[in-house]
Amino acid sequence: MTPARPTTPPDPQPQPHSHSRLQPHPHPLPEPDLRAAFARAASDVTPGPLPLEAVRSAGRARRRRRTTALSALSVLAVATAVVAVVVLTPVRPSPSAPGPGPAPVAVPPTVVPTSAPPVRTSDAPPPPDPTPIRVVASGERVNAGKGWKVWLTAEGKHWVGPDGYENVRSVTDGNIDLGAPGVSHQSEGNAKGAFHSGLYYGTRTAGRVELRNAEGRAVVAALLELPGRPGWGVWYVHTGPGMGDVSPVLYDRAGKLLSELPLLPTGDGP
């Protein structure tokens, strides 16, 4: 018996494609035509207006924020400088309580320079500087001016005027007490002026001899001594007309008054 042949199934029929799938264009556009189509589509789009006012407002807002930030930084810098000055000001530490701990550091006081003159504590004027004393050899003649000459010996004072007449004032005849400060006075003159001279004695610290008149006007005399500081010396000075009565006054080197004579005529009258 002949076996039966299997029945061949019919060929499957092609199913229609779903309409949801995209089918290629039966006639695709060439590339130049595609570009032209995009250009036409773009030209049909109208752009909106440029938002200039919004841009300006945003710029102004940014500038305000920047100015505010810079102002805050400036205030912070000034405050920092003030704090630094306050911190650097030296302050004396207060005494600490007793107990262990580091010793306080002493801060030196601030010295403020000033150009103000010193204040005098007394109304009295300062004493004049001492007059330099010229030391001369015994018998050495000193030109005292206007024709007058003066010299010293162990005997005492010698002088001669323009007329050539010599005079002497002894320190050894007992009329001078060399143990106490004193001053003597001799003068010769005329209407044009007078020459005054004398002895100072009783001190080894003679500083100045002045010739003072009744109105307080004073002239300073020159001083002569022998070597070795014998404790006495000679003074001399010239005065002009109108000096009136005068008095010699002796001071020590510190300006202390040692001796003076009453007012005496100068000899410069007519």
Descriptive notes:
The protein is an alpha+beta fold and 270 residues long. Helix content is 19%, strand content 27%. It is rod-shaped and about 160 Å long. Mean pLDDT is 76; it is low at 16-22 and 81-91.
Helix content: 10-25%
- Number of continuous helical runs: 2
- What is the CATH architecture descriptor of the domain at 133-260? Sandwich
Morphology: rod-shaped
Low-confidence blocks of residues = 16-22, 81-91
* Content-based structural category: alpha+beta
CATH third-tier fold name of the domain at 133-260: Immunoglobulin-like
Distance between the termini: 207 Å
Strand content: 25-35%
Keywords, separated by commas or semicolons:
alpha+beta; 270 residues; Immunoglobulin-like; rod-shaped
